[in-house]
Specification:
alpha/beta; 2 domains; nine-stranded mixed beta sheet; 9 helices; 19 strands; globular
Length: about 350
């Protein structure tokens, strides 16, 4: 398939630059794959749109303040995005104007922290700091890694709003944004209706948000991301599958975790930690996920390709056009879809 098969036009004013005034106030477009029908709702309607016994699977990874700024020898400010910690002092990073960031170049960060580029991995760099940096340092000096289509600096409010209410395990360089719609009140209403919840962890990195640069999508290689599933949550998901209750993934990262961890021969999920570079695009056969709650995704992204594998590509793109016509807000801070 061609990359352009996943293109669509979107007016700039529909790209949400801020979250809704209150969490959980967004709109919800519901797609029925079999009937090829659409209906318009709000996030608060979700409990009534699901059935008792349904199981929602959330990604509980927590976004770290992974964007930091260093000063080079020439005095200019350079942005780095921390992707993966290799050891207490060394990180894989994405650097601003990557080609200029050469081996041996040194930078000074807040709190007199110094670092040197000690390795190159394609468009990524290995940055070694002169002392370990931890979550406490990042909380003081780092910035929320808002995506580039949000054209503003991060604010203190983003520290809360670009984070799910159930985030528990630090490690993501971007939010699992489908989960941003859920409030404690909504989760309680879902439980009252008999809808169960389970949690997996996938730390969002380049595998999720790196653009596809090959004209033929099958040539795209996904970067590896780490995930984990514990015994209690794996058993809960397996029980739902065995009882033929719907497993509803909240977000594409939950989809990729479930589909990567499923052992088809055993009919079970692999427990513990793992890594995935799974690339899901049209033609893929889903093994675990029966329905999907997700945001609207950027053109030509692997996320849009995953959603187009779950429902027919033309149906998805038609639905995106209708959402745009109806004034839905798009991308990380925008509205949501439920695909059943």
């Amino acid at each position: 398939m061609k990359l352009t098969d996943f293109s669509f036009d979107l007016p700039q004013n529909l790209i949400a630059q801020f979250p809704p005034e209150q969490r959980g106030q967004s709109r919800l477009l519901v797609l029925d794959r079999m009937q090829r029908s659409r209906s318009h709702h709000h996030i608060a309607d979700l409990p009534s749109l699901l059935e008792p016994g349904d199981l929602l699977v959330f990604n509980n990874s927590k976004v770290r303040k992974a964007r930091i700024y260093g000063t080079g020898a020439g005095g200019g400010r350079v942005e780095f995005l921390l992707l993966k910690q290799q050891d207490p002092q060394t990180w894989t990073v994405m650097a601003q104007r990557t080609k200029r960031r050469r081996m041996g170049t040194r930078y000074i960060f807040d709190d007199a922290l110094e670092a040197e580029i000690i390795g190159e991995e394609g468009e990524l760099r290995l940055l070694r700091f002169d002392r370990p940096i931890d979550e406490a340092w990042l909380d003081r000096h780092g910035h929320i890694p808002l995506p580039p289509y949000i054209r503003r600096e991060d604010s203190p409010a983003d520290s809360e709003r670009y984070q799910t209410v159930y985030a528990a395990v630090p490690g993501s360089a971007a939010a699992p944004t489908a989960g941003l719609h859920f409030t404690e009140e909504l989760l309680a209403h879902l439980t009252e209706r008999g809808i169960e919840s389970a949690f997996v962890t996938l730390h969002v990195g380049l595998g999720t948000f790196l653009p596809v640069r090959s004209e033929t999508i099958e040539d795209h290689l996904m970067h590896e991301e780490n995930y984990s599933i514990d015994e209690e949550n794996a058993a809960r998901i397996e029980r739902a599958k065995a009882e033929k209750r719907r497993v509803i993934a909240v977000g594409t990262t939950s989809v990729r975790t479930l589909e990567s961890a499923w052992d088809s021969n055993a009919g079970k999920l692999c427990r513990g930690e793992g890594a995935t570079s799974i690339f899901i695009y049209p033609g893929y056969t889903f093994k675990v996920v029966d329905a999907l709650f997700t945001n609207f995704h950027t053109p030509e992204s692997t996320l849009l390709m995953l959603v187009s594998a779950f429902a027919d590509r033309n149906f998805i793109l038609d639905s995106y056009r209708e959402a745009a016509d109806q004034g839905y807000r798009f991308f990380s801070y925008g509205d949501a879809m439920l695909i059943v």
